[in-house]
Every structure is written in C-alpha cells, then in structure tokens.
Amino acid sequence: MSQRQTVVIGLDGAHFELLRPWIEEGKLPNIASIIDDGTTADLCSVLPPVTSPNWKAYLTGKNPGKFGIFWWENIDTDNRRVYYPSHRKNEQIEYWEHIAEDASVGVVNVPTTYPPKSVDNACVVAGAPDGESAGFSTPESLEAELVDKFDYTVTTKNRMETKPDATVEEILERIDSRFKVAKHLLETSDLDFLQVTTFYINTLHHFLWDDEATLEAWRAIDAHIGDLRSGDRNVVLMSDHGSTEIETVFNINAWLEQEGYLTLKRDVSDFMYRLGLTTNRIEQFVDALGLRSLAFKLAPERLKQKVPDEQGEVHKGAKTDRVNWDESVALASGQGPVYLLLDSSTSEYDRVRSRIVEQLTAVRGPNGERVCNDVLVKEEYYSGLYEKEAPDIIIDQREGVHIRGGIGNDDIFTDPESEGWRAENKRRGLFAACGPDFTSEAVDPMSILDLAPTLLHLYGKDIPTSMDGTVRSDVFAADSPIADTPIEYRDSNERDAEIRRIRRIARSLDY
C-alpha cells in the first residue's frame, strides 16, 4: 500500500487535443509539469462517451450493463417510457468506498453521486449536473459549512444560448468553489485520498470550444492544480471522455423515422413550435419579466421537457408522448444508443436489428465521411444484471460527429453552424499522473474501467472480481512499493451492492 496521499482531479470532457496548443504556449504550466514529470495516456471511455454513464463506469470499474445507466435517459421498451433511472446511481459499491475501509477519503463534485452516500471515514459532496441544492453532502453538517464558507452551489443553469456571459461567469465561480472545497477538506480533514471533479468545463467545450473564455477557465483550473501539487503527494488527472469540434450533426430519430422504423404522433410540443414557443424564447421572455427563478421552481419538470428546442425537438422524458409505440420498431437516444421495440426472442427482432446495423454502418454525412466508426449489438458490448435493458444497438460515433437524440426534427443532417454546440464528446479522454508512486514514462492507452482497480491497488486493496477493468501496473514507478506488491482479488458479485445498501439503511434506522 502506498503511504502517500493521492489526489485525483477529474476534468470533464478533457483531452490533449484541446490542451496541447495552450500547453506548448506556456499557458497551462502546472498541467505541463505533470505531463513532463509523470506518465500520460489516452483514456478510452465506455460507449456512449457521455458524462452519464462514464463517471459511474469510472467509480465502479464496471460496464454499464452492471449498473443499468446507459445515457442521460433509458428507454424502457416494456413499459413504453423514456426515463432516467436515478434510483440506480447508488446501487453499486464504488472504489473509494473500499479505500475508506482503512483510509480517510473525500469525494467532491463527481457527477452521478447525488444523493451522497454515507460511508464511514468519508466526506462526500455530490456533484453536478444531476445534484440538488440541498442534501448534497455527508456528513450533513458539512453542507452548512460549505455554504457559509464558500457560498457553495451544486448546479448552474445552462443559459449559454441566451445569456452566455453570465453563464461563463457562473461556471468560473463553480470551478473555483470546487477546488476551494477540495483544498479546505485536505487542510481540515487529514485525508488520505481525495477525488475532486470539475464538470462545467465541458459546457464551455460544447458551446465555445477553444475560445478565450474556455482558456480562461482552463487557466483557473491549472492554477488550482498547481496548488494541489506537493512533493510527496501523488496527483492524477483524468477525464470521463474527450471533446472535439463538430463537423457533422446526425439526427438519428429523423433517420429512423424516414427509414420507416419510427412513427411519431403530434402533441402540445408541435403546437408550441408552430407558435414559436421554444426553450430559448421562453427563457428570454421570463428573464425579461424577472420571473426566471419563480418559473423554474413552479413549472413541473415534465412540462419543461415538453417545450421544443430551436430545431423543434423534444428530449428525454417528453419523447414518451411523441412516440407512436404501436407502430414503431426503434427509438434512439443521443450519441449512440438505439433500442428496438420488438420481442428479442423473435426472428423479426434479429432481422430488423441486422438491417439497422447494416444501414447505420453505411450512413455517410454531407462531407462523405461515415457517421459511425462501428455499430455494435448489445451482446458484444454489455454484460451484467441489466444487460436485458441495455440498448439493442450501440453506435461508436466518428470523432467530429454529433448524434442528436431528440425527436421532432425533419432533417437527417443539420448544419453545425445552426447547432448550439461547437464541440461534441469523443471516446479519447486523458490520463496523466505524477508523484513518487508513478512512472515518468508514457504508457499505452487505458480504459476508464482500469482506473478503479489501479487506484485500489495503489492503496493495497484487493480487487473485486466483479470489476471489468484491470490493474495497470505499468503506470507505477519501479521504486514504488506498489511495483513489488502482488495484485490480490476478492470474490464479489453484483448482489454485494444490494447487501451493502440494506446494511446502510439498517444502520440509519439504528437496527
């Protein structure tokens, strides 16, 4: 076991492609120092390359088939609904919980950690974008302290299309507060391990790509990284996925509709779009009246989702009411997942799935490039308790392609210039680490699933056999005690998480 403190810094959507020019210009000296002094690798995300499911894949070391979250929405084909299974976020044991068995741990702002788990020897500050403004920390007393000392807020309303300057300012404040809290916990809680993540930097990637505001945010992050470096401390940088400029926008549900796989029906969102009532216009209207806060609080989430975007599309739960489930055979989420609305035991299912895979593989964008690097079926990619619920088809979108998953757009391809986003996620994220326990040599690409077992091994913990990742011993320095420590495993299965959950409930009730 390493006797040294380790700080893991999560950088949502980060990759060397964006950072390297700024590093070479001397604008990110602390990140440059970590790269120069330590080890680096591309870090490959699970499909689709999105915040959810990738932060949960990182925390558990497991593929999404084992924790049952496949994007920001799951499509429940049995019950004919589109929903987000938030109740599953805390079902699985996460690697830091194992570290906390005999070390003190802090976890700050990692997405998909709300509500925060209550774990002995750990303080948790749940993360954006799926957190809430109350009940975001354990122990509970920590919340009041963070609000008082740092005016801590979990989420920021994304208004990049209507109030970009104000949103950028808020994002810079959120970045600053995350790192201030991390440093505060290091100073006051005598932590052996800390994970801190900045999520909203990826919002700037999406909307601004490499503009000056994005650089300003990265320079702020770089300064905080410098504060967290120490001679006898290990520092790890990692991301859930990377980002790259958008070349092609592919509206997959429009494609499914035109190919005869998806049938839609009209609802209130059509009427709203014809009247010019879109999300941006309504936001501008309530802002002008000074009613944003009140409207946001009073409007039910289902109603807010009914409002179409500037392309006339609705997303997530609002898709449920737009689909003619009786006449459709396929429905897609954004960035890769495709679900078949057919009985998987039938020959029709196999025939339709094979045909869709073949057709998607052949789709080319306006620039003549393929939209998909690869098109896989669920058995090739997922395993675990939730494999049956997984998307029947999963697309590995080509870098530079943005697959939109809304419904209501008539165009299969739309002009990237009309898109709110300038950059899309890609599978290649980044890994960099320096400190006494890490080598100074670059290593081969890693999977995001490898980080949990590798960090467990750093702390001398046995690796649960239910993890899909592997220990990457090549990242450790030859003179580190870890280099000579055998990798040990412990039997586990996915029911361990349920047992742990029941025990936590029992403890909270003083049974």
Automatic annotation (TrEMBL):
- Matching SUPFAM superfamilies: Alkaline phosphatase-like (SSF53649)
Membrane-crossing ranges are: none
- The protein here is known as Nucleotide pyrophosphatase
| A GO term, aspect molecular function | hydrolase activity
